[in-house]
Design brief:
Chain B: InterPro entries: NA-bd_OB-fold, Ten1_animal_plant. The complex is a heterodimer of chains A (143) and B (124). Chain A is mainly beta. Helices cover 10% and strands 50% of the residues of chain A. Chain B contains one helix and six strands, in the order ββββββα. Chain B has a five-stranded mixed beta barrel. The chains are: A mainly beta (143), B alpha/beta (124).
């Protein structure tokens, strides 16, 4: 039976990304083993980050099953809940990167699943770079 | 789908990282967790322990403050010395003080079961 979980941040592992395929009926949603979803939440170690032309910040999260291909947030997708993120994030990028995006921190990102040049990625609208050491364990238990 | 070029760190316990284990391979990426027992500042070598097993971590590429007695998690590549001693060359690391170790180990078992199911369903 098909289950639709549109507009919900569904907790998943990066291992499950290759199981997601664009829905032929609705290009904004993805079919993942009979479940239709459009958004995903991932939790793991932030292992890389870089800024592209001051337009988008791309980062990679290692959730132990795979390194999730570029997770990105662009200036058109405001970062909502990160305490140190603002809509003018790129004006204050050096400080923001230092506090939120030093590699070696735990990171939780939630956003839209998209495909870009054949790579599934997550355009995050909500990032929390957290210090809660149990965040990933709780994420696993919610899968 | 193209995959990311960065290897993910397979999550293992220190007990599982022994020379007789099939995962004990030069250059393999792992994520390990343990309590910092000692740290050699000059060589940037840390030793973490979990139960009665210890592991050396090369932290020369990290920029974190290490405190003896705190719990740390590292992701890096396994380097096997000529004497068969393992050392993880860490590329990222973080302090995870407060981590519920028992819950962590139990959820890891559940997660492995879940992953096996996912992989089986993909191949079937």
């Amino acid at each position: 039976m098909e289950v639709a979980l549109y507009n919900i941040d569904v907790k998943i592992l990066s291992l499950q990304f290759p199981l997601c395929f664009p829905s032929p009926k609705d290009p904004s949603s993805f079919s993942c083993k009979g479940t239709f979803l459009s958004r995903a939440e991932i939790v793991g170690f932030l292992v890389t980050h870089d800024v592209k032309h001051r337009r988008s910040l791309r980062f990679t999260i290692d959730d132990r099953t795979r390194c999730i291909p570029p997770v990105s947030c662009s200036t058109s997708s405001p970062l909502l809940t990160s305490p140190c993120a603002t809509h003018q994030v790129f004006d204050r990028l050096p400080q923001w990167r230092k506090t939120c995006f030093s590699d070696s921190v735990g990171c939780q990102g939630a956003g839209r699943i998209t495909v870009f040049r054949g790579i599934i990625q997550n355009i995050v609208s909500d990032v929390v770079s957290g210090t809660d050491p149990d965040a990933q364990v709780l994420h696993w238990l919610d899968l | 789908m193209a995959a990311s070029s960065i290897s993910s760190g397979a999550l293992v316990t220190l007990q599982e990282l022994n020379p007789s284990s099939p995962i004990f391979k030069q250059g393999a990426s792992f994520r390990v967790t343990g309590k910092l027992q000692e740290y050699n500042l000059e060589a940037a070598i840390a030793v973490i322990v979990d139960g009665n097993v210890s592991l050396k971590i090369d932290t020369q590429h990290l920029n974190i403050n290490l405190r003896s007695g705190s719990i740390y998690q590292f992701i890096g590549e396994l380097h096997i010395e000529p004497n068969n001693e393992a050392i993880i060359k860490a590329r990222v690391g973080r302090n995870v003080d407060g981590l519920d170790i028992n819950l962590y180990h139990q959820s890891l078992q559940l997660l492995r079961k879940f992953e096996a199911e996912q992989i089986n369903s993909r191949t079937s």
